Design the sequence.
């Protein structure tokens, strides 16, 4: 007999996509539907709307990142190939969204960059487990999950506003001033940044996780992943370099991608199920391609089962830090509550 369920979730938090970008609060809503037409096939789809709010002003200037809305979605299919083997596939992505982001401009100024970002990814995983629902309960069951995925990120930026000695000026106003005076390197780089600068990043992920289930109630999981990129410096994608003719100075502008690309990560996790209550906690360490930066994240989820209803609360906190303490740290957190109805 076919079955399924619907989940609604809402929450918020603080996002810091890059260490040189001011943190900004956000709120989100998410809707997920699950449909199981047969005992061996499961389908689910989700859509998420995130509303990023204005950030606080960047130190030393009045410029601040403005608000935007990001629509993202995912579709999953899981097929049981036998009693102990299952195959899964996922397609996910985010539609293009634009935001004015306050970031450093060249070496001694700040600017608002209009950044348009989107992404599209696909992944597949193969799961083997020893659990047998027709057999007597065992002290320990084990599952192994091997996964492979690829995500493409697109980024386009242009200069909207520049913080000058006379105060913030729109790009067109500043370039008009440049036109009436002798050309300077700062005018050259501003003229270049006012045009459209585009970049993209391809990210491949290879992952594996092992889970031990103790007495059908406690799960102990260790997950690891390695990431590969087509570019030598993936953390520099979304930052653009320009050298004005006749000078040796290289000017850098841009707000980067809304993520710090990881090189590898490891994540231990612990979960336990009581009669009507379940809880899960995890920690993740990420080694980034960005020099001198690593990430520490912790999170958890508590769920209460009430017949065909599920009520849960979840949260996470992440700190992207420089172990030597010479760089700016980036802190992000998320908290949410959700309700599931099983059919």
Sequence:
């Amino acid at each position: 007999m076919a079955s399924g369920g619907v989940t609604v979730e809402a929450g918020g938090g603080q996002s810091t996509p890059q260490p040189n970008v001011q943190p900004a609060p956000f709120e989100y809503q998410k809707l997920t539907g699950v449909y199981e037409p047969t005992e061996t096939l499961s389908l689910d789809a989700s859509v998420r709307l995130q509303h990023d709010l204005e950030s606080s002003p960047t130190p030393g200037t009045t410029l601040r990142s403005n608000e935007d809305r990001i629509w993202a979605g995912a579709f999953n299919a899981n097929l049981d190939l036998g009693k102990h083997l299952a195959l899964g596939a996922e397609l996910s992505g985010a539609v293009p969204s634009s935001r004015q982001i306050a970031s450093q401009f060249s070496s001694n100024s700040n600017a608002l960059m209009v950044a348009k970002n989107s992404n599209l990814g696909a992944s597949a995983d193969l799961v083997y487990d020893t659990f047998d629902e027709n057999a007597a309960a065992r002290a320990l069951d084990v599952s192994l999950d091997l996964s492979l995925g690829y995500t493409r990120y697109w980024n386009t930026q242009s200069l909207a506003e520049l913080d000058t000695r006379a105060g913030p000026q729109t790009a067109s106003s500043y370039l008009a001033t440049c036109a009436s005076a002798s050309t300077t390197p700062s005018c050259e780089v501003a003229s270049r940044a006012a045009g459209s600068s585009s970049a993209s990043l391809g990210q491949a992920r290879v992952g594996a996780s092992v889970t031990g289930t103790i007495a059908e109630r406690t799960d102990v999981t260790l997950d690891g992943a390695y990431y590969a990129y087509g570019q030598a410096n993936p953390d520099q994608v979304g930052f653009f370099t320009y050298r004005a003719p006749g000078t040796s100075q290289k000017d850098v502008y841009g707000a980067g991608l809304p993520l710090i690309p990881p090189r590898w990560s490891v994540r231990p996790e612990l979960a336990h199920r009581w009669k009507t209550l379940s809880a899960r906690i995890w920690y993740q360490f990420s080694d980034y391609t960005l020099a001198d930066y690593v990430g520490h994240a912790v999170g958890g989820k508590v769920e209460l089962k009430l017949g065909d209803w599920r009520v849960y609360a979840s949260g996470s906190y992440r700190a992207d830090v420089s172990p030597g303490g010479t760089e700016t740290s980036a802190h992000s957190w998320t908290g949410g509550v959700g309700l599931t109805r099983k059919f």
